[in-house]
């Protein structure tokens, strides 16, 4: 159902309470999501972004309840991943000649997905579209989070339509940040940032600087996922500045898998040693085979250091460790330290191999790791505690 955002702007998107995975199964979205689409009605009418394909007909039918589609003068596509462009074919069937404003890369992506020769208008940073009392100003934002991405700023209402930027996978009937549990929203906003935007943090920093230098009033930030920031909207911009700048908290996370509990026991003893050396540090233990991968990557983001452990199996490491290390590599974490650990029976390669994975993922590895043959005895367990204490010393 459409919801009025301001006199001129109406939310016409789709709340997806059922979404539990995004990007195939790459990212968990246990709080659902929304595909926010906005109808801007001035003397001219513009529609900003659409929604994901499974909801295309529902979306178009709801839109018809809000406006005669023939009155839409412009379609603005800030970003053309299918969660925002999936309803374009159903919409354009009804209004085939309406111009689609997007970046040149956006046109390429739309053509590549839908193979239609629609009326594209390519825009660049600083280009404007006059709607009457207000104007839309386009700001290219490549890699936030695809090469085609742009933001659209609406004068008069002072709204930044930021698409993926500042969004969260968070389904909510309440639309605004002052109407929801902010702790929950920030938790989802961080998970979103880590798993979607973290690899592009230098671009985030540059784009925020550019927007701040425009020195325009921002009364509202309307992303295309999750809630709208209207109460102190710049709070999420300031938070992004922190997240984009080698963010870390006083936390150490141990990620491991275990076959017969030896590597788990090692993880617990290392954690005890860490606690002995630093009573204040937050310590989290996560079994990579059992915990949600997107939650693990979010904890890595918060950590100043991680320890990754696996038993040696088939002359290598556990497949869950291979999977999570590939996710961690791709997310390009910076300024974090690490080491490896693990139990083994005979060959014992896993620790060396994980050390190499950590180095390849950009972590500063502080030592050669620790191994334990078979099941840790009292001496081995004390050795793991000492390893934990020394690991903390190595962080200084
Ligand atoms: Fe929400 Fe990059 O799509």
Question: N- to C-terminal separation?
Answer: 54 Å
Structural class: alpha/beta
Rounded radius of gyration (Å) = 24 Å
The coarse overall form would be elongated
Biggest sheet overview? 7 strands, mixed
Strand content: 15-25%
Oligomer: single chain
Number of strands: 22
Task: Please outline the helices and strands.
Layout: E1 3-4, E2 9-11, E3 14-16, E4 21-22, E5 27-28, E6 33-35, E7 38-41, E8 45-48, H1 56-66, E9 74-76, H2 82-85, H3 88-94, E10 100-102, H4 104-114, E11 120-122, E12 128-130, E13 135-140, E14 150-154, E15 159-163, H5 182-197, H6 201-214, E16 220-223, H7 234-243, E17 251-256, H8 262-277, E18 282-287, H9 293-302, E19 305-309, H10 319-330, E20 337-344, H11 350-360, E21 364-365, E22 370-373, H12 378-394
Parallel strand pairs: 8-9, 9-10, 10-11, 15-16, 17-18, 17-19, 19-20, 20-21, 20-22
Antiparallel strand pairs: 1-2, 2-7, 3-6, 4-5, 7-8, 12-13, 13-14, 14-15
Helix pairs in contact: 5-9, 6-7, 8-12
Characterize the structure shown:
The chain is α/β, with parallel strands linked by helices and 396 residues long. Helix content is 35%, strand content 22%. It contains twelve helices and 22 strands. It has helices spanning 56-66, 82-85, 88-94, 104-114, 182-197, 201-214, 234-243, 262-277, 293-302, 319-330, 350-360, 378-394, and strands at residues 3-4, 9-11, 14-16, 21-22, 27-28, 33-35, 38-41, 45-48, 74-76, 100-102, 120-122, 128-130, 135-140, 150-154, 159-163, 220-223, 251-256, 282-287, 305-309, 337-344, 364-365, 370-373. The strands form five sheets. The protein has a seven-stranded mixed β-sheet. Strands 17, 18, 19, 20, 21 and 22 form a six-stranded parallel β-sheet that branches. A five-stranded mixed β-sheet has the order 12-13-14-15-16, with no helix packed on it. Strand 17 (251-256), helix 8 and strand 18 (282-287) form a beta-alpha-beta unit. Helix 5 (182-197) crosses helix 9. The model has no long low-confidence stretch (mean pLDDT 98). The structure holds MU-OXO-diiron. MU-OXO-diiron (FEO) is lined by residues 79, 81, 83-84, 145-146, 164, 224-225. MU-OXO-diiron (FEO) binds at residues 79, 81, 83-84, 145-146, 164, 224-225.
